[in-house]
Design brief:
Elements: E1 10-14, H1 17-28, E2 31-35, E3 39-43, E4 50-55, E5 68-71, H2 78-87, E6 91-97, E7 103-108, E8 114-118
Parallel strand pairs: 1-4, 5-8
Antiparallel strand pairs: 2-3, 3-4, 6-7, 7-8
């Protein structure tokens, strides 16, 4: 077994890194920590989470990863998450409960990536 610190980052190909930055800042509170002419990298919302928004003509293309998720701290946060996602311009794809007390919502970001916001 290889010892690691776990998953370190997701690299998303996006049409406009600044649009993605604004969306993820408003919805998840990410913080920019690196920028160059083709990309923006952000920290958060988790202690060690990194998302990289890289300008690409292939933005939103799915290739084996159907979605990625953010886990809520409390199940009651789901309604606020849905309202906040809508206010950030996210498309609500579906929502409900996996089992009683474990709500979820799937949304789509500006490039068409599917995001799950859920509680377990």
């Amino acid at each position: 077994m290889i010892e690691t610190h776990g998953l370190t980052h997701l690299n998303l190909e996006v049409a406009d890194p600044d649009v993605s930055l604004s969306f993820y800042q408003a919805l998840f509170g990410v913080r920019e920590y690196f920028r160059d002419e083709h990309s923006i990298q952000v920290l958060g919302p988790g202690k060690h989470d990194v998302l990289a928004f890289v300008k690409s003509e292939h933005a939103g293309a799915r290739g084996g990863i159907s979605h990625f998720g953010f886990r809520l701290k409390k199940p009651a946060q789901i309604e606020d998450a849905i309202a906040q996602a809508k206010s950030c311009g996210a498309k609500i794809l579906r929502h409900g409960e996996f089992v009683p007390g474990e709500p979820y919502v799937y949304i789509e970001d500006p490039d068409g990536y599917e995001i799950e916001i859920w509680y377990e």
